[in-house]
Amino acid sequence: MKFSIIIPSYNQGHFIRQTVESVLAQEGVEKEIFVIDGGSTDGTVDILRSYGEKIQWVSEKDRGQTEAINKGLRKATGDIVAYLNSDDYYLPGALSKVKEVFLSRPRTMWVTGDGIIVDANGKRIQKSISLYKTFWRTVGFPWSLYVMNCIIQPSTFWKREVLERVGFFDENKHYTMDYDYWLRLLKKGYKPVVLQEKLSAFRIHGESKGGARFEAQFAEDYDTLCQYCSSRWFRLLHRMHNQLIVGVYRVLK
Fold this sequence. Notes:
Elements: E1 2-9, H1 16-24, E2 30-37, H2 44-49, E3 56-59, H3 65-75, E4 80-83, E5 89-90, H4 94-104, E6 110-118, E7 124-125, H5 127-139, H6 143-147, E8 156-159, H7 162-166, H8 177-187, E9 193-203, H9 209-212, H10 214-228, H11 232-252
Parallel strand pairs: 1-2, 1-4, 2-3, 6-9
Antiparallel strand pairs: 4-8, 5-9, 6-7, 6-8
Helix pairs in contact: 8-10, 10-11
């Protein structure tokens, strides 16, 4: 079983080495790494070049993160695919744990696990938010996703054959391309296997989407939910939940 890990990148030279190293350090799995860089000017390319043949990469202007993910997915040859943003990283043993699930449950189409949230220095933060999302993942699908996006994106993996059935990421989405994809998977009848183990670290810092543009992100989040859920009750609940979270974020910022 082979993993294809896509790393969309743009001017994250401070973090990308840790991101790449976290994939290379995964033991007991066959893997390929594609870094799709949007033409960084901060030294990222020099870092990528230093890995030689250990990774595959390209650096050229693109239309943003979602297009970069799709470009990487089209290059993938592995059985299992995932994308890892260039400021996030995998925790030790993550891929081997995911591999075990796919091997023991061959009908499984996607797997999602837990994760931690860290700041620019790698210090764990927002533990209460992590616990809150963990709770919602125990509620069950699709109901939990109708209320909020409780899936930890860098801790989520799916079979490459899913691309033939569900398609690629929606390049009109700038913030919630992952949420849109999870909802599309559920619409096709594919429910995830949920792991309790922490598989990744999601980084929030001043230049990250989650750190700087959270209001626009939650606005797109609600619009995405409405594409897949016609229930007025769930739409209202989702909107109220978003307003609450945005209010909390304003206080934290």
